[in-house]
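== Sequence, structure tokens ==
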Amino acid sequence: MQEAGFAALGIPAEYLRVEIPPGGLAEALPRLLAAGFQGWNCTLPHKEAMFGLCPETDATARASATVNTVVVLPSGRRGHSTDGDGWEDHIAEAWQLELARQRVLLLGCGGVGRTLAFHLTRRGCRHLRLANRTSSKATQLAEKLTSKQCPVVAVPWDPLEISRALQASDLLIQATPLGLATGDPLPVSATELHPGLRIYDTVYHRDFTPLIRAARARHLPALDGLGMLLHQGARALTLWTERPAPLAEMRTALAQAAGRSI
């Protein structure tokens, strides 16, 4: 996807995968710089650690204390978070959805869930409910986020409580790892997916996750994180090149790699 973007812009650049073990990020950064990298993305489990290792960060990174995109400047490393805006780009493209009208239930308060929670409150959704297997994590995040602009409450990780929250929601965001492994259970019962609900699963597979398949079987609008991957990547490329990302070429390359349309 990124190399297709560079090619479309006529930029002779490569996009490589570098595997760094948890806890090894600080040691790896001087090696990346010595190798000549002009920027990079980082994914779990490094987003929070990368935030602490960037001398300069933008407002989106500071809001969630995470970094997924780094630009190397003469003055040092500048960290950004393109996940929240990339996610909103995707739902705006697919659904023309106005976040200010949405009552949202967000499952999972780590990693991408935390980033989306901060983004939703910053954008001012109508109401945000948070649920996490470790309930204290949802409670602590809710305390950080609550504002007059967007009421935020923590919901216990209990089937009955989540069911009640879901019935009072317009948008379900699934941000737990459920769906990554074959045989994972649904995060909520398929019978709880009520008419009028939209479903966004941040996990993505070629054949879609069980949650996406269950939602579409009930004729509900459902998206997965492949579109978020595209749009956050396009924003990253724009940060690196200071030029508009060639979204069409990047979409084609990602769809070919994923084996399905986006």
The chain has two domains: 2-81+228-258, 84-224. The chain has eleven helices and ten strands. Strands lie at 39-41, 56-57, 69-73, 76-80, 103-107, 127-131, 152-155, 171-174, 198-201, 222-224.
